[in-house]
């Protein structure tokens, strides 16, 4: 039972759905390969790594997977579309209660591990431990770090306790008190952070999304780069007079964009050097935003600067239009038909795999594109649903069928696969919506004609 950590299963579920799955619930019941480090195929909300997690292998074995299946999933990529489709089907056949039990056990374990980490910090720095307890964002960052890297080791604990730690990217030290930004600084300074900066940035952005969904106030996260900056207070993320580098340049540009000037009203140049002009601009910004006027750009000042910059951009730029819903969007009029076709095509691929035939699609995107065209073409010929999808012997196309195969009264239509996979889902959705509008207009005209009095 956690005594310090305030995390809940619900918070962790929201966090991992975003950081591990990018917010896409469709990935929950599909195997995925991250193509990073030593990871193998993974599944579920917390992305259980099959090759690296004995518990995950035992769970799959207890729920219908063979040793051969598990061996395939324990490799680093290489599975074909049809192999994955067959394994996905087995995963989707596992009762949801079993999946939930495994997931909840992992979430409870994650809460316990954060609690243990806080206790270790408390042993040497009670004030830092209290700061962690009071900061749910930091606790979630610790849980995410633990889930991604497998543990919160001694260096990580010592770092949160306020000690300087030497990593591959340099010597770093957490602030007092520690924040989520310090966890990000630690990740940036690891070998993984240095070799995969784009992946680190992407996960950081997905973490931000989770915090927004949870309604948790976010602290300033430092830009990804060198963990130490000449002229900055060591490891604290504070920029002071004399600092140089990309972080200083980014701050200068934001200040200039907001209209702040340098010494004696001279334009503020974003040259990456924190000099007298930048100092004056920072101090004026702090006055304008009721901050401590010390000329130091720490978490509070940088966070306020980010917020002011975002507000300026929102006022200056029209809001980007929301992406139009597609057939794949729940609630869309064609979603039931589209999902029906996706299931038929997945089953068809599995049958071909079991029969030793080559797959019809190279990847998931091609299958979903084809499903959009099959759904559209079936509407064109007047089908109300798609009961079966069968492939031509040469694999060049498929037949969508409503009714029993072999029944002369069954409705059927042929779809060329080369054309279907080349038509993206938004295009198929627009075609289908245009067809809906045309049919609605025709029905309205027919009703109007039927209501007109007959001429004598």
Automatic annotation (TrEMBL):
Biased composition (Low complexity): 307-328, 437-456
SUPFAM superfamilies (UniProt xref): PGBD-like
Pfam families, per database record: PG_binding_1 (PF01471), X-Tfes_XVIPCD (PF20410)
Domain of life, per lineage: Bacteria
Region (Disordered) location: 307-334, 423-456
Domain Peptidoglycan binding-like, residue spans: 245-305
Annotated ranges, domain X-Tfes XVIPCD: 330-433
Polar residues bias spans: 425-434
UniProt name for this protein: Peptidoglycan-binding protein
Organism: Stenotrophomonas lactitubi
């Amino acid at each position: 039972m956690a005594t310090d950590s305030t995390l809940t299963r619900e918070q962790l579920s929201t966090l991992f759905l975003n950081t591990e799955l990018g917010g896409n619930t469709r990935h929950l019941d599909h195997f995925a390969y991250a193509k990073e480090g030593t990871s193998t195929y993974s599944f579920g909300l917390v992305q259980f790594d099959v090759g690296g997690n004995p518990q995950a292998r035992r769970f799959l074995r207890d729920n219908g997977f063979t040793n051969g299946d598990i061996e395939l999933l324990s490799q680093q990529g290489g599975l074909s579309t049809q192999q994955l489709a067959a394994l996905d089907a087995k995963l989707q056949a596992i009762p949801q209660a079993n999946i939930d039990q495994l997931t909840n056990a992992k979430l409870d374990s994650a809460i316990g591990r954060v609690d243990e980490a806080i206790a270790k910090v408390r042993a040497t720095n009670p004030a830092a431990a209290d700061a962690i307890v009071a900061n749910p964002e930091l606790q979630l960052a610790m849980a995410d770090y633990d889930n991604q890297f497998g543990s919160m080791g001694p260096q990580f604990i010592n770092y949160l306790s306020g000690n300087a730690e030497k990593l591959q990217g340099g010597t770093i030290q957490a602030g007092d008190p520690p924040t989520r930004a310090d966890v990000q600084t630690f990740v940036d300074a690891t070998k993984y952070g240095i070799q995969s900066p784009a992946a680190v940035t992407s996960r950081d952005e997905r973490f931000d999304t989770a915090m927004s969904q949870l309604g948790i106030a976010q602290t300033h996260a430092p830009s990804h780069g060198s963990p130490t900056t000449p002229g900055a207070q060591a490891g604290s993320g504070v920029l002071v007079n004399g600092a140089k580098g990309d972080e200083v340049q980014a701050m200068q540009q934001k200040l200039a964009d907001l209209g702040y000037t340098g010494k004696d009203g001279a334009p503020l140049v974003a040259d990456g050097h924190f000099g007298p002009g930048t100092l004056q601009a920072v101090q004026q910004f702090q006055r304008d935003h009721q901050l401590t006027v010390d000329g130091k750009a720490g978490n509070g000042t940088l966070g306020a600067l980010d917020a002011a910059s975002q507000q300026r951009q929102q006022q200056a730029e029209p809001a980007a239009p929301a992406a139009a819903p597609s057939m794949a969007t729940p609630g869309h009029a064609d979603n039931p038909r589209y999902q029906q076709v996706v299931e038929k095509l997945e089953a068809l691929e599995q049958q071909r795999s079991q029969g030793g035939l080559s797959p019809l699609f190279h990847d998931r995107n091609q299958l979903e594109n084809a499903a959009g065209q099959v759904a559209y073409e079936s509407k064109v010929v007047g089908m109300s649903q798609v009961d079966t999808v069968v492939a031509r012997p040469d694999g060049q196309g498929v037949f969508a069928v409503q009714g029993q195969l072999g029944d002369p009264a069954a409705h059927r239509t042929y779809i060329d696969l080369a054309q279907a996979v080349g038509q993206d889902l938004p295009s198929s959705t627009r075609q289908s919506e245009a067809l809906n509008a045309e049919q609605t207009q025709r029905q309205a005209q027919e009703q109007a004609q039927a209501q007109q009095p007959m001429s004598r």
